[in-house]
Amino acid sequence: MNNFSIGLRNLARNRRRSAVTVLAIAVGFAAVLLFAGYTHNVYAGLQAQAIHGELLGHLTITKHGLETAGRLNPAKFLFSAVDLERARAAIGTYPHVARIAPRLLLYGLASNGRASTIFLGEGVDPQDMAVLRGPRMAEVSGALDPRRPNGVTLSQGLANILHLKAGAGAAMLVSTLEGQANALDVDVIDTFSTGNAATNDKFAFVPLALAQGLYDAEGYADRITVVLDDVDRTGEARGALSASLAQAGFDVDVRTWEELSVFYRQVRGLFDMIFAFIFAIVFIVVVMSVANAMSMSVVERTREIGTLRAIGLRRRGVVRLFAAEALLLVAIGCVAGLLLTLAARAGINAADITYVPPNSTDPVPLTVGFDVRRCLQITLLMCVLGVVATLFPARNAARQPIINALGHV
User: Fold this and answer.
1) b/e map 50-75, b = 16+ CB within 10 Å
2) Is the pTM of this model over 0.85?
3) Which residues are paired to 20 by β-bridges?
4) Are the beta carbons of 333 and 25 closer than 8 angstroms?
5) In angstroms, how far is CA 155 from the centroid of its own chain?
6) 409 falls in which pLDDT band (50, 70, 90)?
7) What are phi and psi of 317, to 5 degrees?
8) Number of C-beta neighbours around residue 302 at 10 A
9) Closest to 349 in 3D by CA, of 321, 370, 323, 374
10) What pLDDT is stored for residue 359 in this prediction?
């Protein structure tokens, strides 16, 4: 006996009830899938922003203890020129490294000659910066110019505070490693938006050689950023580089872009929690809809069940019949939900909707992707729960005495 063929006919008996149940499943499935597609795009955008926008690269290598004691004794935790050469050789043993970029963080005062304000600077070689930004950000403002050794780029908020524009002159004052004040004249070659309201009024990019000159630390760097040829190799590369650097005699911390990007982790955690909440609501609706539809179907077909039992169908056969019917009901609902998702996704993406996300300064487009992995997981889980929801009424019907079932009115 073909349970699915019979189940399809049974669903067609009461088209209205079956259609309402399929609609409830389809709408819930589409809602979850659309949100999954939206978060999929958000995660991809946050990943690109962290790796290329924040210039975190894929891995960051620092001497162990820099985060805890580095500000009290920064010289102790810097990589010297000799250290950098040894580290490059150790890192180069991993075949998937695309770029090795020494970096130097600096703090101080930026001045336009009349007023001053604090700044947070990032010393990076202009050519390394071009690789870190990636091809997608090649045309975005804020890049350093290798032909301008004294050229710096300022965040838009910082430039506005000091009334500085591209082409203007400024001065930067910092404390050297020995604690002495040191200042250099710089040229503002461009301004940019950090995309983060917390840093857009204090951030600056400075050529690495200029940052080293300000700190009176020629050849030194406080960390090494590693760019890989594939982001999916980040975990593998972390283990390999940790082993290589330890073998070379370095006591270092190797951290991934995800560990360093607090904003990425917080947003992902928030969206994962929202997704789980919506997921739970939809599953409750699906289970209740399927259970209600199948319970009513079992009650209406009690005499039919008794007849099937009387001609030799076993109890497990009755359960399988209703399980197949529930599975078909959920599967049809998921297919309808998938079509509804694709239609809604096309409409949303074509609407060109933009919004300003939290802690950001620029509007971003609202787009919905398609998360294949979550789509398969949701479909499988909904089918399983739909079948489970019908087992209880089906088993109760199958356990009724045949005579009672045949006499049911």
Assistant:
1) bbbbbbbbbbbbbbeebeeebeeebe
2) no
3) none
4) yes
5) 25
6) very low
7) -65, -40
8) 17
9) 370
10) 56
Distance CA 243, CA 183 (A): 40
